[in-house]
Structure formats: structure tokens, C-alpha cells
Amino acid sequence: MLEVLAPEKRRCILFAIKKRPMDLKTVSTALNIPPPVALKHLKKLEESKLIEKNGKTYRLTYLGDLTSTALENFVNFVEFIKKDIEYWASHDLSCLPENFKLRLPEIGKYELIKSYGEEVLRHFKIFSEIYKNSKKVRALSAVMFPPHPRMFAEIATRSDVEVIITNKMLKNLEEYYQEELEKYIKAGGKIFICDDVKITIITTERALCMGFFFRDGVYDTESGLLSYDKSAINWGFEVFEYFKAKSKKF
Fold it and tell me: How far apart are CA 165 and CA 114, in angstroms?
């Protein structure tokens, strides 16, 4: 199968026919290739059961439809990673299950916010404004910035807030932020404990905010990822529910 789809023209033909059935002339025109060349590719695809001919018209088979969808997802994933390949290569996403990793393109047209020099934690400040003005906040994180306990305690008084943290973070809260912790719980905020969390993902109805550890285990305090795409928000809420199902309620 891989050998059949190795030529780029065949993949293009598959994607074109997926949009609508085509005859030889239409395929030739759409891909700007001579009819004899188009016919040769079409025959290979037909022999592999990826397309079938009905009269003069070619259309995808069920197998062809599945294959074209898988190819599109792969192409989308590669294009997504290429945008900031150094960033993705240097950060640790190991705690995410494979299906969520493969769905990373759903994050959409994200912005990679970087903090330099005097703009220390610039992304943190931008993210904070989003949390403060959201009605629904779902956060999972293995790190805690000093302003977070008070901030989330205040947000919980007016919004629906749930957080997933590690046991280590909970101990820090109980030892150093007892007052903020009590205020958060009293306001209706919920806490879940899961030591598998090695990432920061805070999702609201407005946006998805993300932070990562480097592959050497050090948390990246100089950059964060922000997306306002609806697909990104849905992705973030689903990731939260995945870890929530593995967590214990505090």
C-alpha cells in the first residue's frame, strides 16, 4: 500500500476524488497532468482497491476513504509540527496519551508567546488575564507560580473552577498557602490529585493556554502556547477529563 501511494500524484488524485467523483478528463485537468499519465495512476489506485470505476467516473472505495483520511491527518500533523519544529522537539509531551498527541493539529492557529529580558513571564501575564475573565476554568499542572493560589481562590468565587495537581503541589499549598486553599475550597473550587501530570494546560471557554517541561525535566518559564480556536478549547477540555478520570478528589 505504501508503495502504491509513494508517488505524490497518486495521493493528490486520492484527495481530489475524495472531494467529488471524477472522470479521467476531470482528474487530468484538476491535477494538470496528461490523460495517459493520469490513467496510469488511476489504474494503480484501482488495482489497490482504493478507488473504483462506475461507468466513466472514479470514486473512493470504503478503504480509499479511510486511507485518504489517514493521509490527510498525517499531512496536517507534519505541517503543524513544522511550524515550530525546534519547540516541539525540545519539549516533553510524554505524559499525553498517543491519541491526544496525534490530535495536536486541533490546537489550530496558536501563538507561541516568548518572554525575553524585561518581559519576564510575559505569557503568564497574558494567560492570567484570560483566566480572570472566564466563567469556566479547567487547569492541570505540575508547577505552581506564586500568584496562582490567590488568583484561583478569587476566580473560584465567581467562576466554575476545577484543577488537577500533583501530591507535591498539594503539600506546598497546605504548607505555604493554607488560607488561599481554604478560600478556594469554600468558594466551590474543586481539586483533583494525579501524579501523572507533567504539563500545564489551562482551558477556559475563551482559550487554551499551555506550558511544557523541557525534555531534561526543567519547566520552560520563558514560553507558552495560546490558542483561541474552538477545536483547541475542545481538545483542552478533553485532556482535562482524561486526567480527571485518573485522579483522586481532594
Answer: 24
Nearest to 105 by CA among 202, 235, 237: 235
Report the CATH number that the domain containing residue 63 is assigned in CATH.
1.10.10.10
Range of the domain at 124: 85-249
Residues 179 and 114 occupy one common structural domain: yes
Instruction: Give dist(CA 60, CA 14) in Å, integer.
Output: 8
SS3 state at 90: helix
For residues 66 and 123, state if they share a domain.
no
At 202, list the grid cell: 489551562
Contact (CB, 8 A) for 171 and 148 = no
How many domains, in total, are found in the chain?
A: 2
Residue-wise pLDDT tens digits, 102-151: 999 999 999 999 987 667 678 888 999 999 999 999 999 999 888 999 99
Q: What's the CA angle centered on 117, arms 113 and 122, to 5 degrees?
A: 35
Looking at the structure, do residues 67 and 92 belong to the same domain, yes or no? no
